[in-house]
Every structure is written in structure tokens, then in C-alpha cells.
Design goal:
- This protein is mainly alpha-helical.
- It contains 9 helices and 2 strands; from the N terminus they run H-H-H-H-H-H-H-H-H-E-E.
- It has a two-stranded antiparallel sheet.
- Strand 1 and strand 2 (about 235-245) form a beta hairpin.
- Helix 7 runs antiparallel to helix 8 (about 180-205).
């Protein structure tokens, strides 16, 4: 890189600027020396299960962008833009090819009107504000035994609170205008996503990457080198696991993210 390009790329503010400054004080300069690089298998946090082309279990339904992986990408600036651009391109192409092989379908205006009425029925209705539901979900997920040192007791308590909000709060939501109506559906979706996350965290009885269970502090590849998938069948939630097919990957994992850190050891019961 040219010297002027290095100065353009060098981080100057925030935690990245602090890291760059500290590393250079130790004699490590990412722009001025040779560094060993290794490929990394990207991890995912939630999202819709889909193939590489974006196709899902529902024929004709494709998923891309943050619907596939809501990981904020702390260590890669602009991760949301990268994943949206790449998955959006491949998924859009696959969806277009799917449409080419099918005849046009008549638009059912009566069905569309009935669905629209179901959504707009909240407009002008006095009720609980959507922001209060978001605040409740934030309170659930920020508890120390859920957000940091997860425990089965804490996760179960969180699920009980989510169920309480679904039963006692969601039926009484209201929206004064279209803007608040959009927020209303964001709030109901947040309740669903919170439940899915808590369900998966409670089921995973091990510690892995950013998922630390105080009651199961060790990584357990023998039993938990798996993805957890959830789906709805006949109105009921089903949870199952899918083994990660590492043997099929051309690049084999030999080091794990959590190996970079020292994990706390819970005190032994007396």
C-alpha cells in the first residue's frame, strides 16, 4: 500500500484507534510488517435457516442479509453491508431463476384485503405503547445470568417473563399512527426473537464462543458441536439439533474463538 493509503486506512478513533496505538507502541504495525493470516469459519447467531443461494424450507421463500444472520460483526467494520451485498446478490439471482420456471399467479385481492385489515386494525386503538414492550425485552436480556454468565435458572426465568408479556401485554398493544404501527410489529417480533434466543441458550448445555453457561463452563464438542434449529409445526414450537459437518469442510478447524480467552471457573459447591 502507498504511504498515503496507509494513513487513510489507519484507525484513529474509538476502540480500534486505541488498539492500533497500543499495538504500535509494542512494535506491532499491521501496515508495516508481514503477518500470518488464517482462514476462519464464520459463525452465525440466529437467523432464518437457508441454503447458500438463500432458499429456505418454504418453496419460493428466500432469505438474505440480516434475516440470515443478525450478527453485528464487532471485528469487521461494515459487516452488515458486506453480508447484505453478497447474500442479496446470490439470493436475488436464485429467486429470479425460480420465478422464471413458474407461470404467473393471479393476485387474490380479497385475501390481500383481509390480511391488510388484520394489520391495520391496530391503528387508532388506545393501548400499551410498543416502546414499553421493547423496554421489557431489554430488561429480560440484560440480566447478568442471561446476558453474561448464563444459568439455567436465569434463562428459565427469562422465558417465563416472555410468556407473561405475550399473554398479558401483546393483546393490549395499540398504535396511534402508521409509524407506531410499524413499531408495534417490531415489538411483537422482538418478543418472538427473544424467546427463540432464550430457548436455544437453555438447550445448549455447554460454553462456546460468546455463549457462556456458568452451570456448564466447558466446551463439549462430543455432544454440542451442533446447530440448534427451531420451527413451528401445527402451531407448536419444535426444537432440534443439526451436527456441524466439519468433515465436509475443505478447511478444518483446529482452534476455537474461545481459546483466545481465559474463562472464569465457577466456585465448587461445599
Amino acid at each position: 500500500m502507498k504511504p498515503e493509503d496507509v494513513e487513510t486506512m489507519r484507525p484513529r478513533a474509538g476502540w480500534m484507534g486505541l488498539n492500533d496505538k497500543k499495538l504500535r507502541e509494542l512494535g506491532i504495525d499491521f501496515f508495516g510488517q508481514e503477518l500470518e493470516w488464517m482462514p476462519q469459519v464464520r459463525h452465525t447467531y440466529g437467523g432464518i435457516v437457508a441454503d447458500l443461494d438463500g432458499s429456505t424450507a418454504i418453496k419460493g421463500l428466500y432469505a438474505a442479509g440480516l434475516a440470515r444472520n443478525p450478527d453485528p460483526g464487532v471485528y469487521m467494520g461494515g459487516w452488515a453491508t458486506c453480508i447484505t451485498a453478497t447474500t442479496g446478490y446470490s439470493t436475488g439471482e436464485a429467486a429470479a431463476q425460480f420465478v422464471q420456471g413458474h407461470d404467473a399467479v393471479a393476485f387474490d385481492e380479497a385475501y390481500a384485503a383481509s390480511r391488510l385489515e388484520a394489520f391495520t386494525g391496530y391503528l387508532g386503538k388506545d393501548g400499551i405503547a410498543p416502546k414499553d414492550v421493547i423496554s421489557d425485552m431489554r430488561e429480560v436480556m440484560s440480566a447478568p445470568d442471561i446476558a453474561l454468565m448464563k444459568t439455567g435458572k436465569g434463562l428459565s426465568r427469562g422465558l417465563d417473563r416472555v410468556e407473561e408479556i405475550r399473554a398479558e401485554v401483546l393483546p393490549h398493544l395499540g398504535a396511534r399512527d402508521p409509524h407506531e404501527l410499524a413499531k408495534l410489529f417490531e415489538a411483537t417480533s422482538t418478543v418472538l426473537l427473544t424467546e427463540l434466543c432464550l430457548n436455544a441458550a437453555l438447550m445448549r448445555k455447554e460454553s462456546r464462543a460468546g455463549h457462556y453457561r456458568e452451570d456448564y463452563p466447558e466446551r463439549d464438542n462430543e455432544h454440542w458441536l451442533k446447530w440448534i434449529e427451531q420451527k413451528q409445526v401445527d402451531g407448536k414450537r419444535e426444537v432440534h439439533t443439526v451436527p456441524v459437518p466439519l468433515n465436509d469442510y475443505p478447511i478444518k478447524a483446529y482452534r476455537y474463538y474461545m481459546d483466545n480467552f481465559s474463562w472464569p471457573t465457577p466456585p465448587k459447591a461445599v
